[in-house]
Amino acid sequence: MSILILNGPNLSRLDLRDSDIYGAFTYPQLCEFIEKSAAELSLTVEIKQSNNESEIIQWLHEAADKKQAVIINPAAFTHYSYAIRDAVAMLKAPVIEVHLSNPLSREEFRHTSVVSGVVNGSIAGFGEESYALALRAMQKLLR
Ligand code: DQA
After folding, report:
1. b or e along 25-47 (b: 16 or more beta carbons within 10 Å of the residue's beta carbon)?
2. Residue whose CA is closest, atom 6 of ligand 1?
3. Which pairing describes strands 45-49 and 70-73: parallel, antiparallel, or unpaired?
């Protein structure tokens, strides 16, 4: 079964966001990097992005029903969406939280992740490499 990669709000507009923080690549380039990193590990991924909290929750419910592993970058929802936290907590397979930037080195409101407490682990601050590291970690969790 493929690993679900879920990306939250505004990540689709990476090229318009602060490149000092997020890196100088577009969202399609990030997806290409994730696909390539997964292929190198002989993993398959299904990548989805939404700006809509309820859509993300729906996808998490479907992943729970399928017992699908999830790598999630909840973006700004990380910091306040208890609804996404509760949906992540219901997953039945491993789940990893990723961030391009290191939220702990940024504004104070980003220092809280309401999701971290219900995931197997979190990887942040390595730009697109955060996803490659998460895929490696996921491969071990799925063994
Ligand atoms: C982010 C960090 C969040 O604080 C921010 O709201 C994002 C992206 C990251 O990948 O670094 O949109 O999740």
Report:
1. bebeebbebbeebbeeeebebeb
2. 76
3. unpaired
pLDDT, tens digit, for every residue of 85-129? 999 999 999 999 999 999 999 999 999 999 999 999 999 999 999
- Across all residues in the chain, what is the average pLDDT? 97
For ligand 1, pick from 101, 109, 130 the residue to mutate: most ligand atoms within 8 Å of CB. Answer: 101
Q: Are 95 and 120 in contact (CB under 8 A)?
A: yes
Report the CATH number that the domain containing residue 126 is assigned in CATH. 3.40.50.9100
Rounded to two decimals, the pTM is: 0.98
| Annotated catalytic residue within 82, 99, 111, 131 | 99
Tokens standing for residue 8: 């939250």
* Domain that includes residue 58, residue range: 3-141
Q: Three-class SS of residue 7?
A: strand
